[in-house]
Design goal:
400 residues, mainly beta, Jelly Rolls, Barwin-like endoglucanases, SH3 type barrels, eight-stranded antiparallel beta sheet, 4 helices, globular
Amino acid sequence: MILPDRRARTAALTLILVLTLLPSPGAARAAGGERWATDLSRVDADDVNVRSARAGLRLADSRTAPVRAPRGAVAEGLFHATPHTLARPATRVRASLDARAPAGTTAEAQVRGWRSGGWTEWREATGAALFDRPVTRVQARVLLTTSRPGTTAEVRAVRLTADTVAVAAATPGLTYRVYATRIGLVGGVTANGHTIEARDHFVALPSRRSLAPAYTGDYTLRVCTTTGSRCEYAPVWDVGPWNTRDDYWNLSGVRENWKDLPQGRPQAQAAYQSGYNGGRDQFGRVVLNPAGVDLADGTFWDGLQLTTNAWVDVAYLWTGSGPRGVVGDGPLNLRAGAGTGYAVRGLAARYANVPIECYVAGQTVAGPYGTTNRWNRLAPGQYVSHAYVSAVYGGGVPLC
């Protein structure tokens, strides 16, 4: 018997290993999932600073920085594709980009999924985006950035694949106490393209994962004073304060950055209070306050009736479950009971997606969506008239 030399033995073992790891043709087809491509030519009102050209999707203006852009960013744009309905529910979506990205530019594909309780957060999908529960629709978006004026990435195609893998369930209905600051900046433009108005009603979080398209409440916060005496339900329309990749409300395995921090603790809070990351944010700036949420002026002054920056209790409503109502006109008063004679406990901003625990019969009210005596209870001591709710999704609403 002639024994092979060491190189031959190594080559033989490598060949055996490769053949063992290669899936069978049948397995590859089974794991392929559902495939589709996005239409990048349909730039419309929910898109921000992008245009469709012969070379592909690109920034419309690579010179003008958003008012709230972090240091070093010159321009950014967002393109939202039309949601795609899946042939069967899926828990994983992967994206492939055909793009040209010169030095100083980036092009990133992100996705979110629809389930009975609403949209999930946006996830980066170039590797794979995982959902804790099966989703039935998928929407893709493209984020373009540049730090070089006059230079832009060009995306020619985005191809997606959806399939199902086992994933762990997420914790629903997350609520944390964080420090709130006031946005101001009237006349400026938010990260989703909204022009900030006087006494406006929206909020900002330090992550694009929960950024709602303009004039939607797909991601809504309930922000309350620490005494619970005042609350506002407001959509997430901007990115900040301090960081742009700090989804601190998520578990460590999901959190984009700062994975060693406890769930629910913003990086800015850790930097300010404990000197984490040398007391600096992701851009190297010295953190001057522990803020984990920014509030527009109307949310700050009118909704919560704050006079200075303060600690607040924040519920990240898309992490919960159950029926949701869309506030079609507002800001809408939160009443302590089912009638306009009850005390005002805060506000629900227009477009906010609010949880509906149950409903009761109360004072008849005429509003933009009919005349009714139905009042929806959002939480104990918080009622809104159904005459101002444009839609309800996520299941049936029981009688209280």
